[in-house]
Amino acid sequence: MRRKVFKAEAVSLGIGIGRIFIIKEPDVKANKNLIDESQIENEITNLEVAICRTFIEIHDLNDGFKGILSEEENRIFDFYTEILDDKSFFEEINNTIKHKKYSAQRAIHTCIQKYMDEILKSDNEYIKQRAFDLDDVRKRLIKNISGSSGIRMEEITRDHIVLVDELKPILAAELGKKEVRGVVAREGAGYFTHASIILRSTGIPTLNGVCIQELDKFLDRPAILDAINGVLIVNPSEHDIKNCKRNLIKKTGSCVKDSSEDDALLHDVNNESLMTKDGVRVHLFVNISSVKEFIMAKKLDIEGIGLVRTESLFINYKKIPDEKRQFAAYQKMVASMTYKPVIIRTTDIGGDKVPGVLSINDKSLSRSSRGIKRSLEQRQEFVTQIRAILRAAEYGNASISFPMVETAEEIKEARKIIDDVNDELEETYGKRQKIRVGTMIETALAVENLEEILEQVDFISIGTNDMLHQICEQSRKCSTLEKRSYLEPIMLNTIKRCVDKAFEKKVDVSVCGEMATDPMGVVVLLGMGIHNFSMSPASIKDIYSFIKGISFADAKELAIRVAESDSLRDVKRILTKWMKTRM
Predict the structure, then answer these.
(1) Cβ distance 14 to 184 under 8 Å?
(2) Strand partners of residue 19
(3) How confident is the model at residue 64 (pLDDT cuts 50, 70, 90)?
(4) Are the beta carbons of 368 and 377 closer than 8 angstroms?
């Protein structure tokens, strides 16, 4: 068959090589016949069973994504469970069955359609996306009453590029677990939809806006999904495949998913030459939480480690590791990086990181200190860690960073401990270790006290995850619909103030957190003047290729426009329009 190229909107970066699988969603129709009085209780039972089955489906999928999706991204599943657990929603369907003599299927269809009709009248794109989610809930409930088999997921393998007419979040999650080569949708995968967020988190290249009907005849044909350039190439030539596997990767550093050559296609990212299209230098670093991630980072030949989460070292120990064990871990990492920077963050204990050795549970966390405050309270534990880091620093280019800082006084106290430990080490080993000291800026108080904090440090790293929670919890300007988004204007302006203050004080600044792994977040941060990004190893290649394809001048103009926006909706509209101009 002839080679065919389809253009589309790229919503999850990357390249996939595989065979086309077309999902034909079964036409689930509600029984429109009225029921007899004697059937009412049976239909209500059908409704209850369907809700339970659907709830279990969503719970199992959500459980399967623990450790893969972030806390924010996992809220995608909350929308579904909140609907299924909503007593008033159940009562409305229940009453429709009782009073209108509708079957459970028809009552579900009618009640949900009423909400969908109202949502679709909105000019708010975020709200309108919820119609896709509601429709998905409706179809799943009706399917679980009718006993329809639904989509035959068992036929989909990791060798497939999957085409679907309308992509829903739960289907996206199922395809993510299947580790398919790519996903192409006619609709439902816009950049800010829940479905595309899931696929970006699982690293699956995705295109939106392709007419699936035109692709029916290409079932099981070979294809290249290029979500860097926004094209789907069906029946690619040998030259296309060769170019995709060899030349394109070398140029972009993009991660290519190809079942036959996964290992062969591990190419190093040459970060030393990472430039925007107009020649502005950008640095990418990795965040490390485990030995596995460190090994991944080494394979990528990255510029350095922007964050070592040391609390992860404590998880598998029955007691807190002593100086010898900690030194061994830090020394190996620092020495292996051959004088590339390694920023070691002192322990940050929070709700999402609770090492068993510390005898802390979720309830006690709400009453206990965390981050630098806890370290200063647990002085001996802190001194042990500082000694291990300072000793390891002799073997390379290590720095110390402090988490959850709120005041300059905390850093002064921590620096005094570093000086005291250095005095002891000088007496023992006859050598004093110079080391750069920095801090995470991730609390509302740290932002408030930034000028004084900047006087005490050599560098700062803006932690967008924790900062977002605090900024939005304290501001009524944040979207109540989306709960939290780092694209909120108030969040963007907070980050910009931090960056400007750091530049003014000639203090190095980087961004660490989920925002640094989202292309839309990266382009705005780059436009603010941030040239240092730290992220998980899995995100490096896609962000590398994205940055190479944009200009700093465009990013700067975009950052100004979104910072002047009044709402999250406006920010997303501007970014979506800009993204489409790149196609």
Answers:
(1) no
(2) 160, 222
(3) low
(4) no
In sequence order, the β-bridge partners of residue 281 are 275
Cα separation of 341 and 303, whole Å?
Answer: 8
Top pLDDT among 322 and 260 is at 322
Question: What is the C-alpha to C-alpha distance for residues 166 and 164, in angstroms, rounded to an integer?
Answer: 6
Instruction: Choose from 101-105, 224-228, 347-351, 500-504 the range with maximum mean pLDDT.
Output: 500-504
Same domain? For 548 and 495 the reply is yes
Is residue 240 in some structural domain? Answer: yes
Tally: H helices and E strands in the chain: 23, 17
**Selection from 328, 369, 371, 330 nearest residue 347 by Cα:** 371
CA atoms within 13 A on the CB side of 389: 28
Residue at 271 is within a domain: no
Number of separate domains in the chain: 3
Q: CB within 8 A of 68, min separation 6: which ones?
A: 176, 201, 202
Which one is predicted more confidently, 59 or 347? 347
Secondary element (H or E) of residue 185: strand 182-187
**Cβ partners under 8 Å of residue 50, min gap 6:** 104, 108, 141, 142, 144, 145
Find out whether 11 and 206 touch, Cβ atoms under 8 Å.
Answer: yes
- What is each CA distance from 370 to 232, 349, 351, 405, in whole angstroms? 48, 5, 10, 10
Q: Residue 248 to residues 48, 240, 336, 352, 366: CA-CA distances in angstroms?
A: 53, 10, 29, 38, 49
User: What tokens appear for 464 in the block?
Assistant: 């967008």
Q: For the whole model, what pTM was predicted?
A: 0.66
Dihedral sign for Cα 192, 196, 199, 204, please: negative
Residue that terminates a domain, selected from 214, 236, 252: 252
Strands 397-402 and 341-345, by their bridges, are parallel
Same domain, residue pair 287 and 414:
yes
Domain enclosing residue 165, as ranges: 4-22+160-252
Q: Do 205 and 322 reside in the same domain of the chain? A: no
